[in-house]
Please model this.
Amino acid sequence: MTKYIKNVRLLDEQGELVNATVTIAEGRIKEIGGEQPDSAEIIDGNGHLLTPGFVDVHVHLREPGFEHKETIATGTASAAKGGFTTICAMPNTKPVPDSIENLQLINSLIEQSAKVRVLPYGSLTIAQSGDARTDLAALKASGAVAFSDDGVGVQLAATMYEQMQTAAKLDMVVVAHCEDNSLIYDGVMHEGKRNKELGLPGIPSICESVQIARDVLLAEAAGARYHVCHVSTKESVRAVRDAKAAGIRVTAEVCPHHLLLEEMDIPSDDANWKMNPPLRAADDKDSLHAALLDGTIDCIATDHAPHTVEEKCCGMVGAPFGIVGFETAFPLLYTQYVETGKWTLKQLVDWMTVKPAQIFDLPYGTVEVGAAADLVLIDLNKEQTINPEEFATKGRNTPFTGWKAKGWPVLTMVEGNIVYEEEAK
Model:
């Protein structure tokens, strides 16, 4: 059925808010600014902002294998509530999507229960072992959006180089969680000042940046397209910036928590503040912000990583890394960066829509005639306190409990179908 969204505001090319209407037919945007069609379903936008659905290229849905943490149904419900309409699922599942059969299994689970569009990664190595190589051509043919062993850094340079060479022939992106295992030292948070105050083992910044430096040179030699996950340090920013200046085809993402928090914000030995990479120093956070503004970092990704309350109720030592992020990403960034004048609204929306889509050649992230009707309606004036008990995800693991934020999605559509709508109160 045709839908007609009236009384909304869109961002124009200059970043100005303009009044608009949008007509949707057969899952696509048919017209912007036209008259109300006959017999259309009317949606009143109540003057709210209408943007493209958010695109998240780094998420963990846990299913199959870890359904006690999250399922595709709960994870995608959380994504929809946060305004995300296209998400790319990392391969640390059980089984790992390292073969045609395993990837087909995951695609069948997605088809059965996903509320938003889910594009799965194929792994670079068998069982994410870091050694035995997967058949990348077969994984691409089976629907892999890109290739990654996210969750673990590929330790062998030869493995990464040879898979990059293959990916380059396939014109596919290699995506990397960058971490040299020999430099982790059993750390659970950043090696800086706060870990010493808390008496906890630290993870040095070089653990991340040294592998990025290796990989960008491998990507140059292989002619590969290379994307760096969750950049967290100033040295990593420098490595990516220098690589881009050298003409290497590298892109990078940053997570909301690394833009919003730093090591001295950690209040205690609380595993809800444990993520990988960890919260770094204040100058690292400043460097990430500057890199996003100058284009060294291309987009924002949540690294949504749910765990059970039981897993996170102990201290950092022994607890798994990761926090949830779908439902708080836009409101937190809007409140802390747009409302304060550090970013424009258009910058934030672009970093969460068109920019990540461009990296992976995805036909999403825009509001234009002919595009998929993946849309999110956002009440920029709505303010509420973050309460994990209200999350749609199974995960409650967030350091943002009790924070007040403005700019909450109230309706999300995928191909014209409403997949989330705020309950009337």
